[in-house]
C-alpha cells in the first residue's frame, strides 16, 4: 500500500508544515478516495505568513512592474506545460469533469498573460494643473499585504484572478484556499515558486475559515481582503474588516436566470440551459438555477429539456463518458436534497431527478440527479435561494416585462441571459436586466477574463474582479503635484 501524501504550506519561500503539525484529510467527492493530508493551520501560521509577506513588500513594490510581469509570463508558460496534470488533480479533489477542469486552469493561463501585460501599462492619469508651471498627475500604488480567501468551485481560476492582479500591482499576498480543494491551490502556488517569485511575495496557508480565514481578515498587517464565497461568510468578513477600515471585495452568491422568449431558437436555448444549469453540477456562481420561459413555448421547452436531461451521464469527472460529476461533498448533497421538500411544500412539482444518485459506481460519491422543477412561482424559496446544485426551477411568464421583473426580483444580481431573435427585445433586456453580467443568446456562464466580473445587490459589494476592475481594487491612487514655478502658488486662491 502506498503512503498517503502529506502536503505543506508555502511561507517565505519554503514548504512548511502547520506550526503545531496538525493535518486534515482531503477526499475525492466521486468515490471517497483519500487524496492526501493537508496542513490544518491556525493563528501562528497566519502570523508567520503575514510577517513574510510584510517583509517582502518593499522589495516587491519597488520591483519595476514590467519585471513583475516577466514572472507572470513564466507562470503562464509553466501553467500551460502543467495544464493536464493540474486539471486532473483538480477533477479528483473537486469533482468537475476534466474538460471543465482544463477550462479552470486555462482561465489562470489567460489571466497570467493578461496581468503580465498590465505590468507594462498600469495606467495613471496626467491632468492639467490650474496654476502655471505646475504639473499634476495621479498614479496607482499597491496597498501592502493582501489576503485572498477563495472557494472550492474554481480552485485554480479564482485564486488566479485575485493573486495575479494583486501581485502585478505590487502587493504581496497570503492565499487561503477552501478546505475541499487545497491541492489545486498548492499546485498553482508551486508554479510561482518554480517561476522564481521572490520569497514571501506569495504565501499559501491551508486550513479552515475560522482558524485561518478570519485570523487573516483580522490581522492588523493585512491591508485588504479579496473574498469569494457564500453570502453568510462574506457578510461576516465585511463586518469584521470594517472595524479596521480595511478594503474588502466580496464575490458572493447568485440566483441566475435564463429567459426564453416565444421567438427563441429552442435548440440553441436547450444547449445553453443544460450547460448553464448542470455544468459543474450546478456549482458555478453563475450557474443558471431559474428558467424564465414565455408561455407559448413552455411545454415544448419542458419536453425537450426532460429528454436531454434523461441522457446526461453521471460519473467520475476523469471518465470521458461523464457529463455531470459529483457535488463537492456529502454535506452539500444533503443540503441540495433538503430543497426538494421545500419545493414540494411550496407547491412546485419535481419533473425529473429530485434525489441523490447512488447506483453502482456512484455509491461512494456525493452525486445528485439533475433536477427540473415545474410549477415554480417567482417568490418560492427554490426561486429565491441559492441551492448550488443541479436543480433548475422553471417559471412561466407572459411578457418580456414580466420576465425582466422576475429576473430582477431576487436579492442577487450576478448573471442573466435571454434567448430571443427579436433585436428590440434583446436590446431592452441588455438595458433592464439588473445583473453584473448579461448574455444574449448564450447561457449564464462563460465569463472571459478581460472584462470586469461581479454582480449587483446581494452578490457583492460593488467591486469587480478580472479586467481593469481588478487593478482598481488592488491599488490606491496617489495624487502628485510638482510645482516648478519657484514661488509659493496657492490653489483656489491665486488667480
Ligand atoms: P464559503 O463562504 O463557505 O467559503 C469560502 C471561503 O471562505 C473558504 O476558503 C472558507 O474556508 C472561508 N471561510 C469560511 N468561513 C470563514 C470565516 N468565518 N472567515 C473567513 N473565511 C471563512 O463558500 P464556499 O462553499 O467555499 O463556496 C460556495 C459559494 O461561493 C457560493 O455561494 C457561490 O455562489 C460563491 N461563489 C461566488 C463567486 C462569485 O464570483 N460571485 C464565484 C464562486 C463561488
Description:
The strands form seven sheets. A seven-stranded mixed sheet has the order 14-17-18-13-12-20-21, sandwiched between helices. Helix content is 39%, strand content 21%. It has helices at 43-62, 65-94, 98-118, 157-168, 182-195, 209-218, 231-242, 266-278, 295-310, 330-346, 381-384, 400-408, 423-432, 467-473, and strands at 9-11, 14-16, 23-27, 34-39, 125-128, 134-142, 145-149, 172-176, 202-204, 224-228, 247-251, 256-260, 288-294, 349-352, 356-357, 367-368, 371-374, 391-397, 412-413, 415-419, 437-440, 456-457, 475-483. The mean pLDDT is 97. Helix 2 packs antiparallel against helix 3, helix 2 (65-94) packs antiparallel against helix 5 (182-195) and helix 8 (266-278) packs across helix 9. The protein starts with 8 loop residues before the first strand and ends in a 12-residue tail after the last strand. It binds nicotinamide-adenine-dinucleotide. Residues 149-154, 176, 178-179, 208-210, 213-214, 217, 228-230, 233, 236-237, 251-254, 285, 386, 388, 414, 455, 459 line the site of nicotinamide-adenine-dinucleotide (NAD).
CATH architecture assignment name of the largest domain: 3-Layer(aba) Sandwich
Count of helices?
Answer: 14
- What share of the residues does DSSP label as strand, in percent? 15-25%
Question: What is the name of the CATH class of the largest domain?
Answer: Alpha Beta
Mean pLDDT: 97
Strand order of the largest sheet: 14-17-18-13-12-20-21
For the largest beta-sheet, the strand count, sense and barrel status come to: 7 strands, mixed
Number of domains: 2
Rg from alpha-carbon coordinates: 24 Å
The CATH topology label of the largest domain is: Aldehyde Dehydrogenase, Chain A, domain 1
Percentage of residues in helical conformation: 25-40%
Specify the structural class.
alpha/beta
Amino acid at each position: 500500500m502506498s503512503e498517503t501524501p502529506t502536503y505543506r504550506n508555502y511561507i517565505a519561500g519554503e514548504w512548511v508544515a502547520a506550526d503545531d503539525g496538525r493535518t486534515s484529510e482531503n477526499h475525492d467527492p466521486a468515490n471517497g478516495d483519500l487524496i492526501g493530508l493537508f496542513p490544518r493551520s491556525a493563528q501562528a501560521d497566519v502570523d508567520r505568513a503575514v510577517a513574510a509577506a510584510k517583509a517582502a513588500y518593499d522589495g516587491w513594490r519597488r520591483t519595476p512592474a514590467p519585471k513583475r510581469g516577466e514572472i507572470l509570463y513564466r507562470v503562464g508558460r509553466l501553467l500551460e506545460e502543467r495544464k493536464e496534470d493540474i486539471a486532473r488533480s483538480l477533477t479528483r479533489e473537486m469533482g468537475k469533469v476534466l474538460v471543465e477542469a482544463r477550462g479552470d486552469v486555462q482561465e489562470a493561463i489567460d489571466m497570467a498573460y493578461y496581468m503580465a501585460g498590465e505590468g507594462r501599462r498600469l495606467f495613471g492619469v496626467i491632468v492639467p494643473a490650474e496654476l502655471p508651471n505646475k504639473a499634476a498627475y495621479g498614479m496607482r500604488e499597491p496597498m501592502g499585504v493582501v489576503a485572498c480567501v477563495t472557494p472550492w468551485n474554481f480552485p485554480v481560476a479564482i485564486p488566479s484572478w485575485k493573486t495575479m492582479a494583486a501581485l502585478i500591482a505590487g502587493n504581496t499576498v497570503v492565499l487561503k484556499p477552501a478546505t475541499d480543494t487545497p491541492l489545486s491551490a498548492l499546485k498553482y502556488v508551486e508554479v510561482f515558486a518554480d517561476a522564481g517569485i521572490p520569497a514571501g511575495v506569495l504565501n499559501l496557508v491551508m486550513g479552515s475559515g475560522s482558524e485561518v480565514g478570519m485570523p487573516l481578515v483580522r490581522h492588523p498587517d493585512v491591508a485588504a481582503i479579496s473574498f469569494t464565497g457564500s453570502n453568510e461568510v462574506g457578510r461576516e468578513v465585511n463586518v469584521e474588516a470594517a472595524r479596521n477600515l480595511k478594503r474588502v471585495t466580496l464575490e458572493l452568491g447568485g440566483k441566475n436566470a435564463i429567459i426564453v422568449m416565444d421567438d427563441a431558437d429552442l435548440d440553441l436555448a436547450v444547449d445553453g440551459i443544460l450547460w448553464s444549469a448542470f455544468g459543474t453540477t450546478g456549482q458555478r456562481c453563475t450557474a443558471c438555477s431559474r428558467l424564465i420561459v414565455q408561455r407559448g413555448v413552455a411545454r415544448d421547452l419542458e419536453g425537450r429539456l426532460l429528454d436531454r436531461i434523461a441522457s446526461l451521464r453521471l460519473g467520475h469527472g476523469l471518465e470521458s463518458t461523464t457529463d455531470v460529476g459529483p457535488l463537492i461533498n456529502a454535506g452539500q448533497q444533503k443540503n441540495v436534497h433538503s430543497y426538494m421538500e421545500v419545493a414540494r411544500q411550496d407547491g412546485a412539482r419535481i419533473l425529473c431527478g429530485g434525489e441523490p444518485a447512488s447506483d453502482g459506481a456512484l455509491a461512494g460519491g456525493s452525486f445528485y440527479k439533475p433536477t427540473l422543477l415545474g410549477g415554480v412561482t417567482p417568490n418560492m424559496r427554490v426561486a429565491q435561494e441559492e441551492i448550488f446544485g443541479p436543480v433548475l426551477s422553471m417559471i412561466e411568464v407572459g411578457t418580456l416585462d414580466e420576465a425582466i421583473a422576475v429576473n430582477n426580483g431576487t436579492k442577487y444580481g450576478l448573471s442573466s441571459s435571454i434567448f430571443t431573435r427579436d433585436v428590440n427585445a434583446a436590446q431592452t433586456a441588455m438595458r433592464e436586466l439588473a445583473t453584473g453580467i448579461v448574455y444574449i443568446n448564450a447561457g449564464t456562464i462563460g465569463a472571459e477574463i478581460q472584462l470586469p466580473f461581479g454582480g449587483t445587490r446581494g452578490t457583492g459589494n460593488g467591486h469587480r474582479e478580472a479586467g481593469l476592475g481588478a487593478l482598481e481594487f488592488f491599488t490606491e491612487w496617489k495624487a502628485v503635484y510638482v510645482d516648478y514655478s519657484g514661488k509659493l502658488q496657492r490653489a483656489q486662491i491665486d488667480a
